[in-house]
Write a structure and sequence with these properties.
The structure is a single chain. With 203 residues, this protein is mainly alpha-helical. It folds into two domains: 115 residues; 78 residues, no CATH class. It has six helices and three strands; from the N terminus they run ααααβααββ. β2 and β3 form a beta hairpin. The longest helix has 29 residues. The radius of gyration is 21 Å and the shape is elongated.
């Protein structure tokens, strides 16, 4: 039986695949909408929506991100299906015509994706006073940052887990010294499709 993390990874893959399959459908590359993938996604989302208490904070954060991304895509697909049913999308034939349809579908999907990205999910927040003694908090922050990066399609670059831990430790100490504060609040949020990690003075 797959773990929660494995199921969430599968959900993320299915959402990406759904977008690809819908692009193919609207571009004339397949005859029917990808209903089987959509059903699989909704089954997982429905199951974890009902069992949210079983998720760790970072898993719930990732699940909420994926659910909102799927909801935005679904709305885009629904509108495009409605336009097709109303006859507002011309039906072309032949390889050149299919290429035109595929390019049109790609541009429409990109516009929908950009719109979805701008409506970012709720930010993750955690407050630290001594990160070297607050391993759980730093771990939650790292997992939230990693999850948000994955959903946004960004990679971590050279930021390893140990490098992240050292960054938080040093940043907290620097702010405490410079601003004469005791607590530092870290915020992970997605703005215009880009993941941001902010360190704010608390008190």
């Amino acid at each position: 039986m797959p773990t929660i993390d494995e199921e969430l990874a599968g959900l993320e893959r299915d959402i990406r695949q759904l977008k690809i399959e819908y692009d193919m459908y609207f571009g004339g590359g397949r005859k029917r909408p990808p209903s089987e993938i959509e059903w699989r996604i909704e089954t997982v989302i429905r199951r974890y929506a009902e069992r949210g208490g079983e998720l760790k904070y970072t898993q719930r954060f990732r699940f909420n991100n994926l659910s909102q991304t799927y909801a935005k895509y679904k709305e885009v697909f629904r509108k495009r299906l409605a336009r097709r049913e109303e006859g507002k999308i011309e039906r072309h034939f032949g390889a050149a015509a299919r290429a035109i349809e595929a390019e049109r579908a790609r541009k429409q999907a990109a516009a929908g994706e950009e719109s979805a990205a701008k409506e970012a999910p709720k930010a993750f927040r955690v407050t630290c006073t001594a990160p070297e003694k607050e391993a759980d908090k730093v771990e939650q922050l790292y997992e939230a940052f990693l999850s948000a990066k994955k959903v946004a399609g960004e990679d971590m670059g050279k930021m390893t887990r140990s490098a992240f831990n050292e960054f938080v430790r040093k940043k907290t100490k620097d702010l405490q010294t410079q601003k004469n504060c005791r607590e530092v609040e870290y915020v992970v949020e997605t703005i215009d499709g880009q993941v941001k990690l902010k360190a704010l003075m608390k008190s």
